[in-house]
Amino acid sequence: MCKCNQQHVFWSMFNKKELPCRSFCRTLMGNSYAGQLRSARFEEVLHNSIEASLRSNTLVPRPVFSQLYLETEQSFGRAENEDEDDEDGSESNSPPIPYQMKPPPEGCCTTDGFCQAGKDLRLSSLASDALDVPAGFMLVGVKSPSLPDNLLVCAVDHRFLPDERGRNALLGFSGNCMGCGEKGFRYFTEFSNHINLKLSTQPKKQKHLRYHLYRNKQGMLVKGAPICWRVNDGRIRPIRPTLSESSLSSHEQPPSAALTSRTAVAGSHVEQPTTDGAHTLINGNHGAPSSAQLHVNQPGRSSAAAPHANAGPPKKRHKGWSPDLSANSLQDSSVKSPPASLSLSTLSVSSVVTNGNRSEIPSLQSSSQASAAIFSPPQLSVIVPDQLLHTCRLQPVIFKGHGPLPQLTGNVRDILVSSLLHSCYLSSQTLPRVYQHYGPSPIQPLSTEMQILLTIYYLVQLGPEQVPLVEDLEQIFMRSWRESHLSEIRQFQQPQTPAVQGRHYNLETPVPLPGHLQHISLQSHQTLTSSQLPWLAQLAASSSGEGVVVLGEDVRSLAQGLHQTFSRLMEGKLQNTNYVVIIVTTPGHETQSCVVVTGKHQCRALSESMFSPSEGLKEINLQLSSGVAEELIHFCKSLGSDGDIDNLLESIPTNSNEALPLSRNQECPEEAMSSPRKEPCPKDSQSSKDEVSSKESKDTCSEYSAEWREVRPIQLAVARKLLSHVCAIADSSTQNLDLGSFDRISFLILVPPSEVTFQQTVFHLRNSGVLQDLVSSDQECMSKLEAEEYVVKMDKQAQARIDHLTQEAHRNPYTLYILVHDHAHWDISSSSCSSPDGGLGLVDLLLNSQQVKDAANILILHVTSFPFALQTQCTRVSPYNEIHWPPAFSNDVDLYHERTRYFGVSELLETTRSGGCLPLMRYDSSFESMSSALEERFPKLHSAVIRTMVLIQHYCMALVAVSGRISSSHNLHKHTSVETMEIMQALLTAAQQCPSHHGHMVLLRIPSLALAEWAHRRLCRVRKQLDLEDCFEIILGNPSQTLTIRQHFTNQIKTWLKDQDCDWVPHTYLELEALPCILILSGAEPLGESLPRSLKYCDLRVISCSYLHRTTLEQELGLAAYLVKAESRPLHKPGPGSDVIESDPEKLSSTDNEEEEAQENGDSVLQSTQPGPVGCQKSAAECVPAQSTTSPNVQKGAFDALPSPSKAQAQPQPSSQSFPHAPTAPPNQAQVQAYTSQMHSQSQSQPSPHAIDQTNIRPTSQQAPISHQIHPKSTSSDSSSPRASSPHQNCSWARGVGRPPSVLLPRALYDIITVSDSSGLPRCTSFLPHIYVAWASSFRPLLSKMMTCTEQSLYYRQWTVPQPNHMDSSNRTEGRSDNFHPRRLLLSGPPQVGKTGAYLHFLGILSRMLIRLMEVDIYDEEDINYSVQAESVQFHPPNAPWPKTDVIKRMPFDYIIHDAKYDDISSIYCPGFKPVGERNPVRQEDVYLRRRTSRIKLSKYAAYNTYHHCEQCHQYLGFNPRYQIYESTLHAFTFTHLLLGEDIQLYFIIPKSKEHYFSFSQQGGQLESMRLPLASEQNPDCIKTPIFTPTTGRHEHGLFNLYHAMDGASHLHILVVKEYEMAVYKKYWPNHIMLVLPTIFNGAGIGAAHFLIKELSYHNLELERSRRLEGGSPADVWPFIILADDSCVMWNAVDLDARSGPVEHAVSLKQVLQHMEACPELAHYGLCGIRKWSSRGLKGSKRWEPFFRGHLYDFLLLNVDRSQNVQYDQNRFTCHDVDFTLRLHSAGLIVCRFNNFSVMKKQITIGGYRTFIIKTKMTDVPTSVGPSQYICAPDSKHLFLATPAQLLLEKYLQHTSQKLFPLSIKNYANPVLSVDCYLNLGPEVTVCFMSSRPHSVNISTTGLLFSGLLLCFADAFVTSAFLKKFTFLKGATLCVISADRSSLRQTVGRLELEEEWRFRLSDEFQTANAKEDRPLFFLTGKHI
C-alpha cells in the first residue's frame, strides 16, 4: 500500500468521504518534490496542495479536527450550494489553483458589473443612489478582475470583516446584493457567482473584498480605506487555513461555550456541546451557537479589547452557520467584551491512570532525584538552565507522553513534570473489558501516532488563555476510537439483553456520529506510520502560528528536544508559544513524545493545580509570612497618588461640623500581610447600648419580626419519605432493623468543625420541637445547653461523644440511635491515609468503625447537597436507601402548595441565557484585567494573593469613593471596578434610607484564612478612617471561631427582634438578617453555613479555579441558593427583549447619583417623564465603548454614574422560575450628572417592541402591612419571605429580601459554568465528583439531562471508583459488588433547600411512630346499667386470691349486661333493678365504630400481630433452625355430634415443632387426640389449658403471637379458621396449630366456631381419658379450655397494697392463667373469666369485691366437662355469649369472674365475626337493603338476599322490634318472655329469660305481666303447661320461630297456642332467602 493511499485512508477517516486515491496521489506527489525538501516553503506548498486536492465540487471534505468532534450538520444555507464549504484563508505565494465556476442558470445576466438579475453594481453607477443597508452591515467594494478600474458595491455583515488590526473577523461570509436586493448569501463562492466575478481561481473574500465604502460630505459613495486582511506584527506571515481550523474569532465565541483558566481536574468528563443547527469548534469543543448563546451580551463590563486567541485573518467556516442566529448582537464591535477564550481546566497531576484506574502520585517539582525516582531516565540527561524562571518569568511544565523522560539536572526547581498526559494515553489504550471476553477481536486501541496527532490538533484549538483539560483529550480519543470501530462495537452490543442494559449504562453505545461514516477497517486505520507523523504534526501545528511548535524532524531524542526547548526559552524565541511538542521517530524504535508547556498563563495555572487544596493554602500562608507579597503592595502604591489608599486616607479633610474621626490604626498593610494576626473588634461604650434616637423611635420600619414557621409541606414529604425507607428496611426479610423492639429513639447530629454551623444546627433543633417529643416535656423550648448535647462538631472531641453513644447503644438495646451525618461530603478521607493532626478521616474512623456497623440499634443518615462522592462502585449506601429531594413544581404546578420556588445553580445559569440584560451570575472584566496584568508581573506570587490584593484594593477604593470624603479630582475609578462600586453604594445607601437602618449583606468569599484576616483588618482600617464604623459591620467568618460583632450592631438586632435578654448575642449568620455588613467567609470550602435572606451580593471573585470538581464548584455556588416567593410573580411577564427605564431612591449620595437596583430589589418604577417598557435595562458597558470604563480620561462623576448592573437583571425567566415584584417606589429626586443623563438617553433612544402598562408590575392585591419574618435562604426548618407590600418604600431590604442575590465569579469559572454539553447539562456536571474519586474508564457514557437523581446515582455508582484516600476504598468484599451497610441512608437535596428541617422533622415523626408502634388503641369503656342501689354486701375479702364455692353460690347472679359493647341490645329483666334514664337506640354498627378508646403503651407482656418480629420471636414464629419453615402436616379428624346430624371431618394443620402436643396412631400416623395434662400436674413453665382463638379476616392483624404474653412459657395455642382462609393463615403463621372448620361453616358466625370448639374439646377429653386409662395412668385429665378473642392484647392485675386504692399493673398471660389454674375448687366451676379493662373501672370504688357472678365475655376459661349438656348455639351470629351464659347459669353451673385480673382489647377495624355484609343474590345490581326487606311473606316474589337466614332474622328482630312488640317499647316492668334463648330485640325492649329445662334456675315471675312471648326453635321441654305458668298483657305479641313451615304449624298445635293467641294468615313470614338457602319461618299473633 503506497503512502498516498495510507494518507488517503487517514484523511478519509476524518472527512467521512472516500477520496479518489489517484487524484490525491498525483496532487501530493506533484507538489512535494518527491519528499526531499524540508524547508518552510515545502510546508506551504504541501499545505496548499493537500487542501486543493481535498477541495472538490462533488466531494467536500471537512477539517480533521472538525470531522472528529462535530455532530451531524444541518445547514441553514441553500441546498444547491451545500458542496461549497470552504474559502481560502488568505493570500498565498503558492501557484494559482485552477478553478471552474459553475455555469450560470439559463436566462441570467452575465454582463460584467451586473448581477445575475441584471442590476448594476458598479460604484460609479450607485454612488448617488440611496442604498438600504441593513443594521450591522457595511458597504464594501469588490474587486472584479474584468473591471480593473471600477468596484462593485455589496453589503457585508461587519462581523465577517476584520478590524483595523486585521483581527476579530468571523469565519465565513454573509452578504447582500445591492443591485437586486437579494439577501442571505452565506457563501462567498455563491455570492461571486451571483455578481458575475468570473474568476479563474478559487473565490476568496480576502482577495476580492478590498475596500470600505463611505459617503463624503456631498453624500456621494466613495472608496475608503482598504480592508486589512493581514496582521502587521513586524513579520508578515499569512496564516493559512488548516484542516483543524474552524473556530470562531473572539467576538463570536459565546460565553456559554467559552472555557476558563487556571483550573485543574484530574480525569473529569467532558461532553462536546451539540445542537441541531450551526456547529462551531471552540477550543476543542463543539460549540452550540444559538440565539441565546452565540451573541448574548457579555455579562460583566469590558474595559478593553483583549488579544484574540488566534491572531490573523479569518479562515473558512462550516456551512450551515447562520448569522441570523445572533439577533441581539451589538452594533459596534468595539463595545464587545473580551474574548471568551480562557481554558476550561488545567492538566492536573493529582492523578494518574494505571490499568484504567487513577491513583494519586506525587508531582515532580523539587529535585532531580525525584525525577529519577518517578520517571525511568534514559542514558541522556538534560541540564535545566539557571535563572530560567527569572529570565522567562514562567515555570515550564513538562507532560510526559510516550517513552521515558530523560533525567533532568541542574535547576530542576524551575521545572514541573506531570504524568497526567501519559496516564491519559494509557487509559485510552485500555479497552473496555466487554471486548476482551470474545477472544481475538479486530477492535484495537488507538495507535501511538494517532494519539500524538490528535493531541496536537487539540492543542492547536486552544486559545492563548486556555489551559488543556485531560477530559477533553480523553473524549477526543474515545470518539475517534468509536468512529473507527463503529460496526464492530455494534456487533458486540447485539448479545446484550435488555435486562443488563436496564441496570447498567451501556458504555459502548457510541455518541451520535457525524454523517454516515463508512466502515473503516483496523488495518487501514493503523496505517499512520511513525515516518509520516512529523510532517503531519507540522502541518497540523502550522495553523496556530507560533502557538504550538512541533520539534520532530531534526530531533533524535527527547533529551535533544528538551535541550532545544530550554535554549529557545532562554533566548526569548518562545514568547508567543504556548506548547512545544517533541516527537522522536527513530527507525526501529518506538515513537516517543512529550509536551512542554511554555505559555505564561498555562504554566501558572498548571503549577498551582499541582498543589492539593491544603497545600495551596499552606503556600499562601508561606508567601504572606515570608514577606514575598510586600513587593506587590509596594508596586500598587507606586501606581500614583490615586492608587495609594493610605495617602488618600491621610488627605481626607476634617469637617468641623462633623464628628472627629476616630484614632487611626497605624498598622501598615505591609506589616499586616507579613505577620497576620487576629485583631479583636473594638467594644463600644455603655452609651452605645441605648443608641436609638428619638427620631428613629418615631419613624421605624415595621417590616421586621423574628418568627420561625412550621415545617414546610415539601419538608414534611421528605421526612415521610425517610420514614418510609426506614420502615422498608424493617419490613425486609433481612431482619436488619427491628422497629418493633424499640420503645424510644436517641440521636446525635454530626456537623463539620464550624462553630457557626454548630450553633445553626442547635438553633434549628431547639425550634423544631424534636427534643420536647423525646423527653415528653411541656416546656416551650429546651435550653441551649440541652440542645448542644445532641449536636457534635467533627473535631477531636467528637470521638469521645460517639464512643459514648456506642456504649449506650450496647447497654440499651431497646433504644434506636440515629447518627445524622450532616454535610456528609465534607470529610470522606480514609482514616488510614489521613494524618491524625489534620482533622480529616475522622468520619471514616468513627462512622465506619466495626462497633457502629455491628450495632443493630444504630441507624446512620448521611445528609448532603452533593452526594456524588458517596456514590461510587464501593459505596456503603444501597441505592434503595437513597432519598432525593423531590421537585416542588411539575409543569409549573406547585405540587406542595407552599408558594415558594427554589432558586439554585440551574436557575442562576438560566439568567445568563436570558438575552439583553445583565444576569444574576456574572464576572468583573475590570477586575480580571487588573489581576491578569499583575499575575504576569509577579510570576512567583500565588494567584490567590494577587487577586485578593486587587479585590480588597477595589473595595477600599470603592468605599472611599462612595463615602464622599475624597474630592472629585482623584481618579479613583482607575483603581476599582463598576461591580465593586455598585456593591459598596448598595451597602451604604440601603441602611441610610431605611428608618430602622435595615440593610444588605455582602458575602466576600476568601478561602485562605490568612488572606481573610488581612482583608478584614484592611477593610476595618479604611472604614474606621472614613468614620463609617456605625454604618455597616465587617465580619470575619472563621470556621473555628464563634461569630463576633460589635455591641452597637448587637443592640440594633435586639431592637429589631424586641429581645429583652441583655445577654443575647447572635451566634449564626441567620440572626444577622437585615444587618448591613460585609461577611468575609474563609475556609477551604463552605461548611454548611446558611446565610440570611438579606444577602444581596455573593462575591466569589477570588475563589480558586485550580480544583475543578463538581462538588467543589457546586458548593461554592450553593452559597447563593435562595427560596423565592412564588405567589409574588407579576401578572404579565415582560417579554424577553424588553428594556426597562426606571429609577430608584437608592442613589450614590456622594456624587448625587445613586444606584439603580430596581430589578434586583423588585422595584418596577417608571418615570412619568420617561415612557418606556418594563423589562431589563442594559448595562453601561453595553451602551458606551468598552474602553471608556477604564480610560483614565473619564471623569470621576461619569464613572460613579454608571448604571448598576443589578438594574439589568434578567426579568424574563423560564416557566420554572419567575421573580416576584414589589410595590413601586417614589422616583429619584437626586440630581444626575450630565454623563449619566447622556447614558440614559442612549439607552432610551432604542425603542422596545414591548410596552407594558405600569399596572402590570403592581402587586396583585393590596395587602395590609404585616410583620415580616426572619428567614434564612436555606430555611432549613422554615420558609417564608416578606410580603410584596411594604409600608416603607425606602426600606431596600424589605423590597429585596425575596430576591436572589447576585453572584460575581472569576472569569475562568464563569466560562466553565455557563458552558453546556450536548445534553443541555452545565459543563461542571461532567467533572469528576470529588478529588478523591476517579473515573472507572475513559470509555464511559455521558450524563444526560433527562436523567433523574436516581439515574445519576446509578451512573456514578457504575462509572466512578474511590481512590485509596477515599473512605469507601476499603469497602470491598471478595465475590461481592454491593457491600452495602443495611442501616445506612442518604438524603440528598440542593443546597439551602431545607434539608435540616426535613431530617429534624423525620426524627420527630420517627420518635412518634416508635411510640405509636409501642401503643395501641384499647377499648376504654365504662360499665353500663349499674343500679343506683348498689349491693352493700361484701362476700369475699378484698385480698382473697381465689373464690370459695359456697360463697359464690350465695352471691346472686347478675342478669344485667354491663359491657358497653352491648349498649345497643335488649336489657335482661332482673327483679329489683331499675334502669337509670332512657336509652337512645343506636345501631350496633355505629357502636362498633364510635366506641371509646385510649392510647396505651404496650407492656413487655403484650400479644402481637404479624408485623412484630424480634429475635426472641423467631423460633416461636417458625424460624427454628431445627425445622424447615412452613414444614407442617395436614391431619384429618372425624367428629360426630347429634346436633350436627352427620359425621363432620375436621382438619388440623400441625407444624413439625408442635406434633408433641398430639397423639398419633402407631400404624399410619393418624391423628387420634390432642394430648391433655393431668389436673394434678404442676409445671411452673407450662400452661395446662389449651387456648382456642376463632378468627376470620385477621391473618395479618390478629394478635396470635403470645410469646411475650406467655413470658416464654410453653403453651398450646390453636387458631380456629374457616376453610377458605386456611392458606392465608398458614402463610402468615406457619408455626401455629390450626383447626380448620368444615365447609358448611364457611358462612357461619361466631356461635358455630365456639360450638365446634366446645364439642370437639369435650370429645377430645373423652379420648384422652380413654387413652390414659388404657395406659394405666389416672384419668383426672385437665378439662378446661380457653376461648380467647383475637384482639386480646394485654392483661393486668390489681394491686391492693397501694395507698390510693386498687391500682392495676401489667402482668403476663402466663401469670393470669397459672393463677386461675391453681384455684383449689376450679373443677366446680362451669365458666370462669376476667374483667374487661377500663381506665375508670377502679375509680371511686369504696369497696373491692374480688369476684363477680354474672355475664362473661372475650376471655373465657370453660370447663367442657361440667358444661357438656349446655352447648353454644351454632346458628348464632350476635349475642351468642350472652345467650350461652344465661343457659349455663340456668343449668345450675357456677359462673365466676376474677375481678383481680383484666384483659385489654385492641381496636381492630379489619375483619372479625361482626363484619358481615347483607347483599342481594344479584351482586351485579347494587342495591341498599333495609331491615324491612330482611323478611317476606312465604311463596312471594321477593328480592332474595345472599345472607344466612339466622343473621337476617337476628338483624330483623334487632331493628324492627318496635313493630313486632309494640307493648314492650320502653316497658321494663312488662318484658318479653324469651324461652330457652336470648335474642336481641333492640335496646328499647326488655327480655326476660326463662329456661324450660327441669331443675333449671329461673327468676320468680309471680305477679309479672309479660308484653310478649318469643319461642325460638322450641324443643320438647317447652310444653303447653309450662307456658300457662306465665301471665300476658292483653294484646301482647307472640313470635314463634321454626326451621320450616311444617314445624312451625306443629309447634303451634303442640303448644295449644291458638287457645290464647289469635293468628292471621298474613302474620306468617320467612327470611328473605331462596329455598336452597333454607329460610327461617316465624309466625306472629296477639294475646286474646
Low-confidence stretches: 1-43, 53-97, 232-378, 494-526, 655-698, 1128-1272, 1274-1288, 1482-1488
Number of strand segments: 58
Q: Which percent band covers the strand fraction?
A: 15-25%
| Helical proportion, percent range | 25-40%
Q: How would you describe the overall organization of this protein?
A:
- There is one protein chain.
- The chain is α/β, with parallel strands linked by helices and 1984 residues long.
- The protein is built from 55 helices and 58 strands.
- Strands 38, 39, 42, 43, 44, 45, 46, 47, 48, 49, 50 and 51 form a twelve-stranded mixed sheet that branches. The chain has an eight-stranded mixed sheet with strand order 36-54-53-55-56-58-57-52. Strands 18-17-19-20-34-21 form a six-stranded parallel sheet, with helices on both faces.
- A hairpin with a 2-residue loop joins strand 22 and strand 23.
- Helix 26 (755-768) packs across helix 46 (1395-1413) and helix 34 crosses helix 35 (978-993).
- Residues 1-43, 53-97, 232-378, 494-526, 655-698, 1128-1272, 1274-1288 and 1482-1488 have low confidence and may be disordered.
